[in-house]
Structure formats: structure tokens, C-alpha cells
Design goal:
globular, 8-stranded parallel beta barrel, 275 residues, isomerase activity, TIM Barrel, single chain, IolE/XylAMocC-like, Xyl_isomerase-like_sf, alpha/beta
Length: 275
């Protein structure tokens, strides 16, 4: 698979200096990456060609992860791109799952990814000391690897509500545990995105940017193609003082590069109108 987009080289050091770097996600090429129609190398090239600041790679869409990990890290660095890592793993899981969580953290560290996205999973009961201690050990391990776990509000249950995310961040208080705010998932639970941003505030290290149609069962769509109050949501994120990775998370729908370009144009036009 090759990109049909015009080549645009990001300004030098843009990815390093921007407080709101924009990354494309493996979700845009989910089926193509899984099938081998698109390689990880092509995915990295597409990010560079579209002018994005980086990529979000995912274990589940990377069939040759072990064989390609070191070279992917080299190519990302050579292209001057940023990288984050995401998996479907849940922080609150069985003892047997801890090995996978550690491996995911190690993968992020090898990539040079400052954050790894996990979902919460079912929150342990308040008196389940073993469950909380197990999660604490994972968070502590991430800290030793200079990696931050970005806990994401899940689209379904368990682990999708603000209370669940906030409760985990509070009980497992650590600089190595923060949150990736998914602007499309809080509405699935009847919760206001802006209110979630205000509540989580300086604990947000990344945000999955997407839009949603009026039909709740439809998958996420590129920015500006749905009905979410994007202006209000993004303005709330922009007001945060820390760096926040803006990561496009919507499916390719037959034209992944087009969806990326439309979303980049949406953000660029919004920035232009604000000046």
C-alpha cells in the first residue's frame, strides 16, 4: 500500500517543540496493517508525508512486532517523528496478565514512546488489596522504564466512566500513571467530555481525537464529519498547560489518508480562525 498524498516535510523541531503534537494512529490502517497490505514502514512514511508529528503504534495491528521493533524505532527517529504506543491490555487484570503489561511497557521504552495506553478493566473492590497492589507494581515498573501509562476511558464497560478513571488515578497516585482522554468514549456513558477534561485536568497526557455521527452505533469518523462539539472540546484541551499528544483515532473507511488530511485541515483552519 502506498500513500497518494503530496509529500509535506514537517518543520524542523516541530515535533519536539509543539505542546500539541498531532499523531496518526494505527487504527486508520487497522485492517491493512493486520493483513500486510500496509507495512509498518509505509505507515511511518505516511505520517511523514501527511505532515503529522508522529505515529501511535499498536501491538494488535503489528503482526511482526518482535522482528521489526528495533528497526521501527530507528526509522521513526530518523524521520524526526514522535511515537506513542497503545494496546488493548487492562491495568486491572489477573496475575497471569502482568507479564504482558510488563512486555508492553518494555516495547514502549524500546520505541522511545513516552506513553503506553492501557484500559482500566474492572476496578478492584476497595478492600481487594492484592488487586490494587498488583496494579501498583505495574505502575511502579513503568516508572523504572521512564514510561507513563496513559489510562484510557473505555468505549464500553467496565472501565469507561470518569469515576473509574479518576478512582484509579487517585488510588494509584504516581507520575507514571496518567490518562489518555478519548473524546468519543465518554459520551457513550452519557458523560460530558468538557466536564471530564476539567476534572482530569493536569492528568491528561494524550487525547484520542475523533468525531461521531448522530447514530451511536456508527464508528468514529474524521474531525468535522460528525456532531460532537469539537470546538468546545478542543478549546478545553488547548487550555491545559502541559503537553498533550493529539492522536487521530478513527477508521480508514477506504480512504485513511483522506481522513487524516481532512482532520489535519480541520485543526489548521481552526487555528487560523483563532488567530
Amino acid at each position: 500500500m502506498t500513500s497518494q498524498s503530496e509529500h509535506h516535510t514537517p518543520a524542523s523541531n516541530e515535533a519536539e517543540t509543539s505542546d500539541r503534537p498531532i499523531l496518526i494512529s494505527a487504527m486508520q490502517f487497522e485492517e491493512e496493517l493486520k493483513s500486510g497490505e500496509c507495512s509498518v514502514w509505509e505507515f511511518i512514511d505516511i505520517a511523514h508525508q501527511t505532515g503529522a508529528d508522529g505515529v501511535e503504534l499498536r501491538r494488535e495491528t503489528w503482526p511482526r512486532l518482535e522482528a521489526e521493533l528495533a528497526e521501527a524505532s530507528r526509522r521513526i527517529a530518523a524521520a524526526g517523528l514522535l511515537v506513542t504506543y497503545a494496546t488493548q491490555a487492562t491495568l486491572f487484570d489477573s496475575p497471569a496478565a502482568s507479564a504482558q503489561l510488563h512486555q508492553d511497557i518494555d516495547t514502549a521504552a524500546t520505541l522511545g514512546a513516552p506513553i503506553v495506553r492501557f484500559f482500566p478493566g474492572p476496578t478492584p473492590l476497595t478492600d481487594d488489596r492484592a488487586g490494587w497492589d498488583r496494579a501498583q507494581r505495574v505502575v511502579d515498573y513503568a516508572a523504572t522504564q521512564n514510561t507513563v501509562i496513559a489510562l484510557e476511558n473505555y468505549a464500553r464497560t467496565p472501565g469507561g466512566t470518569l469515576a473509574e478513571v479518576q478512582g484509579a488515578l487517585s488510588r494509584l497516585a504516581s507520575p507514571a500513571l496518567r490518562t489518555n482522554l478519548d473524546m468519543g468514549n465518554y459520551p457513550n456513558h452519557g458523560q460530558d467530555v468538557v466536564a471530564a477534561i476539567d476534572t482530569l485536568s493536569d492528568q491528561i497526557v494524550a487525547a484520542h481525537l475523533k468525531d461521531k455521527t448522530a447514530n451511536p452505533s456508527d464508528p468514529p469518523v474524521p474531525l468535522g464529519a460528525g456532531v460532537l462539539p469539537l470546538g468546545e472540546i478542543i478549546s478545553s484541551l488547548d487550555r491545559l498547560s502541559q503537553r498533550v499528544y493529539y492522536i487521530f483515532e478513527f477508521r480508514g473507511a477506504g480512504d485513511p489518508v483522506g481522513g487524516i488530511q481532512r482532520s489535519l485541515s480541520y485543526l489548521k483552519q481552526r487555528e487560523s480562525e483563532a488567530q
